[in-house]
Known about the structure:
The chain contains 5 helices and 4 strands, in the order ααααββαββ. By secondary structure, it is mainly α.
Amino acid sequence: MAHHDIGSHASPDDGYRETPAGAQHEYTDAAVRPIVKLGIWLAVATVLVHFGMGFVFSWLSSDRSAAQGQPRFPVAVEDGMRLPALPRLQGVPLRDITEHRILENEQLEGYGWVDREAGTVRIPIEEAMRLVVERGLPALEQASETPGLMPADGSAGATMVRRRQ
């Protein structure tokens, strides 16, 4: 195996840490003068565009119709105050959510009819949980199995067909 002598360098990069005497940048890589000129022209163009846009904006935003005695928005003056079409955005969201929560709490903590004709009532949630613990949940009704029939494909159990054997 050949032994390579790397001299007094601890690593291969040590030879590039110091700039050799008489070393300069390469003049053929990039000309500095055109790059500086480009930067100056870009700065001047940026300032000119900035002031030009400011002038155009102030000219366009000046209210020339009010100076001539005309109303600014003649159609809006004729129609007066109109409300937008429904549904509208919330006017005061904090008040709306507060009223909603108060209504929900009244329903969760109070008695009331859900469907008077069917005899369905609403009871406080605490009492409902206590009753579930005491009585348990009602059992689901078992579907009556018909021998020899099975649900048809894609019917979700609505249609029964004879079993193929």
